[in-house]
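I'll show a sample.
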Amino acid sequence: MENIFEPETFSLIILPILIFLARIIDVTFGTIRIIFVSRGLKWLAPVFGFFEIMIWLFAIGQVFGNLTNIRYYVAYAGGFACGNFVGIWIEEKMAIGTLVVRTITKNNGIQLMEMLRSQSFGVTSIDAEGATGKVKIIYSIIKRRDLPKIVEIIKKFNPRAFYSVEEVRSASEGIFPPEKQRSMDNFPGFFRLMRPGK
């Protein structure tokens, strides 16, 4: 155990690992911070920004203090790459935000609307003219976490139906499926604040 903390071992092994982990954490925080800004969560973004910069200063300080050691460069770059992946993965699991799903179908749109309403989704439809004839456009504003469910309903109705999904910055009102107890409740404090509708 004492060998781990010998100066040579620390500089060649331990410190590059610490730089790598620090970069993963600070880039993860940065990715989440940017996503929070785009979602309008202005109170949480500065908190993540503070810790992001604190950790980054540690990592960059170690690199500048050892400019001739290639291990530090690799650890720094590797942590950056992994941090992007981890940040996006965490954001996907948190599923924050609101989406608009636009479905264009030539089939009987009334049936799809009934299927969506039976699952407590709000729907609005308009008649339109497409390249191959009359179509029905069906809009639904949903919580992001419900996207897989609504896509499953659309594909069940018509596997070849065209649909598009767009981010919604804010929505004043809407009809959404009732809240269920989710695993997000296991996250401490501020993570629960990020649940949509809370």
